[in-house]
C-alpha cells in the first residue's frame, strides 16, 4: 500500500527522485500520466490496467475523453540507480513541476504534485475531509 508524503525537487534535466518505499510497490517500470487536479499519477502497470478496465466498463463513448487524456500523456518510466525517474516536459508543464515537488501515496498509486499546489489543496482539507467522511457515513 502506498502511503505517506515525500518532498523532492525536479532537477534541470527533468529528473525526480521517487520514494524508495514506493519504488518497491511500483515495480521495475511503471506508468506516469496526467491526473485530476493538475497533478500526475504514477501507477504500477497492473493497477493502470485496472483503471483502464473500469473506464472500459463505462463504454467507449462515455470513456473516450478520459482514455484520450490518460493514454496520450502516459509514459513508462524506469528509475535509474539513484532512484530518479525522467519526466517529459509535457507532463512537467501540465502539473507545474518546475522545482519543488510533493509525492503522496494514494493507496494503490502515487500522486506527483507541485508543492505549492499541494499545500494550497491542504488549506481547506480538514473541512473537506469531514464532509467526505460524513457522505461516506463512516
If you had to describe this structure to a student in words, what would you say it looks like?
This protein is an alpha+beta fold and about 140 residues long. The chain has one domain: Chemotaxis protein chec, CATH 3.40.1550.20. The protein is built from six helices and eight strands; from the N terminus they run ββαββααββαββαα. The strands form two sheets. The chain has a six-stranded antiparallel β-sheet with strand order 1-7-8-4-3-5, sandwiched between helices. Strands 2-6 form a two-stranded antiparallel sheet. Helix 2 runs antiparallel to helix 3. It is globular, with a radius of gyration of 15 Å. The two termini are about 20 Å apart.
- Structural class, by secondary structure, is alpha+beta
Q: How many separate domains make up the residues?
A: 1
The rounded Rg comes to 15 Å
Count of alpha and pi helical runs: 6
Q: Biggest sheet, in brief?
A: 6 strands, antiparallel
Q: What is the topology, as strand order, of the major beta sheet?
A: 1-7-8-4-3-5
Arithmetic mean of pLDDT: 94
**Given this structure, which CATH class is correct?**
Alpha Beta
CATH topology: Chemotaxis protein chec
The CATH homologous superfamily name equals Transcriptional regulator MraZ domain
Count of β-strands: 8
Label the overall shape: globular
The topology string of helices and strands comes to EEHEEHHEEHEEHH
Could you estimate the helical fraction of the residues in percent?
Answer: 40-55%
State the end-to-end CA separation.
Answer: 21 Å
Strand content: 25-35%
The CATH architecture term is 3-Layer(aba) Sandwich
The parts where pLDDT drops under 50 for at least 5 residues are none
